[in-house]
């Protein structure tokens, strides 16, 4: 279980109402600042980003989702097997924050604490129009075990931090998992026979299968 | 109904946990009635045997000898065989394997008896092969039969063959009088003395005539025993040729095995070096078939022995040694020395392994075979966008041929399993939908995964020796393609028919049809598209129809998804070409656009396609990368059209 030699692959799903800027955030994050031409390789709605954190190679697969309310029911097939989720709201739009709450509730219900969450208040360039209060959002994030960030996709502010934080937490969660799995493996060593049935009986049944 | 008793020997340490969760639980559902998994524990030098039975859905695990012995008495009534007992005080890992094998054979017999008495239709297919780690003598023996087993060699020839070798060197031949296998052993370093021992076969296995050693299940085990133990009863310990003993991996063994009898006269066998009076090999004492040419590049000096560099050139040498290739193909091989064309081999080599059985499929004309290969190649090269990272620019044709040949050879286990599976699933898929409980696509996918895994760990005798590859990824990709060719293709019709009946019966297709008509009339605002994104034009929709039609025509889920990819690329181009358009298609627009296009086309059958792709796409593509995302989006679009329009 040496994660140093292997590339860790994480699936990150982007959730949030339409027009809150989730696509802009991920585009900012993935685009190559020094070479505009690289943008032509971008695909539709799906992006990958390679990272190296402390010598560990990481490949983030970022899944964009449709934010319109009518597509809400499609959520589960997008977020299944996700390691992390970024929930984006618009700080000038109270409804979009309510939508984030709805997603958080659903994710926690469906995926439990396995999934790492980041709540992102976007559009801080429009601070003067803010309707979602900073402390309220941050308290809420804390209460659900998520980390809160403020970003501005327009001004390219705070975006790196979101993904870095999320990735580090996903890595930690992965290490935790492998550690506990290792421990279980160790404590199981004297298991001899996991069976109460006589073998003769079981082998007799194959004829009728 | 068929029952399979399956035995799987894992070459990897500590695999028991893996199989416990993945393989057994999954596969026991349908494919096999009993599964034995042998693996070496990573916590002790012992073997773990997992026995699973699908009837009871239970898993029996026998693990770690010391602990086992403690439990032994308590479980006696459960495991009579063990109490009597095949597992008592194993001395070494090899020994343990021998006993494990014995145990397996006994149980197999028992299962077989039961099944055959229960119903004559039932059939058992058992894979009795075992793949221990390479360090095992058994493994080396197993992979090099063609070197030490020569049924056609007589006593005189055996003596001649062995005369130049150190003591302990041996071959197994067939006694000309008694028609029994016979072990010929060089017993002295100083003289040319060779002793001959008759090998007896009984129901319990084989043993050397006159010895008091318990019978071993097969010849390899018997020989391995006499190789591994000094005072086993023969005048000397048996010795495998040095090169075979020192081989580092299966590929090297395979290389030697390919040489067959010629190995003994090649420079890889130290006899010649032992004599050390020749730089080039002596002419083979055994009359060679006229088709063979003398070995080509054998100019390495003898002191190269044991050096790594020696092995690098082996592949090429053997290829040339062994088959009679036209001159221009030598160049080709030199460019890529690891691969050799199966077709050429089977034509010019007289190795029985490469001669295809005279059946209808094998006797198809060459050009037809060529087309098949072309199809496979196109499979590999088609989804370039997706698999650029996975697939080498030049798909390995030879690897494909080798795999294909192995899987369709009627004399090999794979063919038997696959054809039975297909036959069975044809029946399963045509049954009334209500009676089908488990998702048949899931089971088909699992069977494919299992076949893949088995292929990758299969003993040499089961696969064509020519399949030597240097990249696991290459093999996996090629295998995936071949499996779709062999398994998915004949089942496609049945799968789609089943899905259609399923969606017909629950009214989904009707709902889909109705909803598609509704959405097809939607405008820009109904779809909630961004301002910068416009509705797809007629041309895009017609192009999408072409690609979706192509998708329906494909049987490989990978090709299906590559057609989906084409549709998406077209959608993206549209966005890029719109004045003031974006360079990137946000999911907020992508999903409604995809839904709109599908609705416009009115192709309800795409619902079946989405299920087909989801069910049969290999795990790595279903869970990683773009293919995963687009398969999901496609499915999402159809689910939305089916369920969410009110």
Short synopsis of the structure:
The complex is a heterodimer of chains A (209) and B (646). Chain A is an alpha/beta fold and 209 residues long. Chain A has helices spanning 22-30, 75-79, 94-111, 134-143, 159-187, 199-204; strands at 8-16, 46-53, 56-64, 84-90, 116-122, 147-150.
Low-confidence stretches of chain B: 1-33, 40-46, 54-97, 111-134, 271-365, 368-395
| Beta-strand proportion of chain B | 5-15%
Helix content range of the residues of chain B, please? 40-55%
> How would you name the CATH homologous superfamily of chain A?
P-loop containing nucleotide triphosphate hydrolases
CATH topology of chain A: Rossmann fold
Distance between the termini of chain A: 39 Å
Pfam family, one (chain A): Ras
InterPro entries (chain A): P-loop_NTPase (IPR027417), Rab21 (IPR041833), Small_GTP-bd (IPR005225), Small_GTPase (IPR001806)
Organism (chain A): Trichoplax adhaerens (Trichoplax reptans)
Keywords (chain A): GTP-binding, Lipoprotein, Membrane, Nucleotide-binding, Prenylation, Protein transport, Transport
